[in-house]
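Hi there,

I know you've been waiting on this one. I reran it after we fixed the sequence typo, so this is the corrected version. Both the input and the resulting structure follow.
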Amino acid sequence: MENPPLSSQDHLDSLDISSYKILCVDDEPNILSALRRMFMLSGFVVEEANSAAEALQKLEQSEFHLVLSDMQMPEMNGAEFLAQVRDRWPKVMRLMLTGTADLKTAISAINEGEIYRYLTKPWNDEEVVSTVKSALERYALILERDNLLELTKQQNQSLAEMVNTLEEKVKERTAELSHSYNELRGSYIASVKAYSTLIGLRDSALLAHSKSVADLAVRMAKAANCSQNDTQDIYIAGLLHDIGKIGLSDENLSNLSNGVGGYSKKLYEAHAKAGQDCLSGLYEMERIALYIGTHHERFDGSGFPGGLKGDAIPLGGRILAVVEAFEEVQIKKKDVEQMSLRDAALLINDYSGTAFCPEVCKLLLKVLGVVALHKESQPPVTDESIEATEIVVRPSTQEAVTPAAPKQDNVPHKSDVLIKNLLTYSELLSVVAKFPGAQVFDERDQANGYLWVRQAGGVDNANPKLVKWLGDHKFLLKEDKGWFLPVL
């Protein structure tokens, strides 16, 4: 049986359950009969097995999308059986049916065997059917993600053919017009910039971020006296460093800043390697791909995907790591309080020798014209202040000890500080005040707090113009509370 065609996230509610095949495993015939009757009445395609051994044999002979297994069975219990299913057919969704006496064992099996969910006996038919539908929707999303990754590889194969064709033309033209080589090389760079806009088709914010990273990375490469070819490769790697995120689902891509965990976190941490794999086969892209694949490695070896340490990380990867963190710190810090370019650079320098290469941190300060503070005058740094993937700046009432800046008459009031580079806090208050019943709640001084806009009577009572304005300014909706703008 071939995999059923998948719809997008917007059409999951209309999932064609008749296209998916369920295998029920239990040593009690009456339980199997009840499960078969329940699933068939709901429109599912279902088969049965009265032992783990019979179930494994059926899985080898036919394709199933979901397995529902009893916990207590002779010879091999449900936890052991589902662990084998995970190892041999990892895409198959796994559910466990267990009695209340086995609840502790079932929870342990879920944690260790990556079982999607457990159901207790006696069961509620509606709950079981709803759980199975939810599991199949997750199966569809995972398969859709794999299809997107495959599509990305195919697109890059086409891109490789385009580049190869271009290089052939370059060779032919060089034989006749050797003086035009530099111009053709410039065209190659322009083409790479055009390819980087493909990232913008996936997420416009990624494109803006990639351009900022590339611009600063090339300045640092020049300051490090890199050769022209090395500098060019670092610039292109900066433009394309997030190309691996094209394969992420919309949910994963939109929740990156929220510190997603579990399966989603594994997908996110794979994006650097995915980007390297996508580009490594392209002409003259091998080193660029290597820089992309190592831009989330940490100098102390705690990064990903390879856990490389120190000079084992190529210079291009170390530069991109520092530049991307600098860009992220500035964005996130502005959500909490106004942060100057100088303070952002000094914050990155706090992690010299741990997260980042000391020499590259010096390059950042040199390029930005920032003089490093002495260690005793810097704010304390703890292990909790920095995470494996990015710097997270949390609200604080303490200021870093820095030399006093010259007083300027045009320094904005704190209420006029830019929020996510979108608007000022006073502008937010002014806009929201125009809509009756809408209010701004600033909870940024609380742990993991956000900036909220709430509507009296619930979100359904909000003016459509306000809803559109909030969406345009990157506010997210939490239906039971209102709209929020993450600041952590």
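Quick highlight: Residues 5-12, 257-262, 333-338, 374-418 have pLDDT under 50 and may be disordered.

Best,
R. S.
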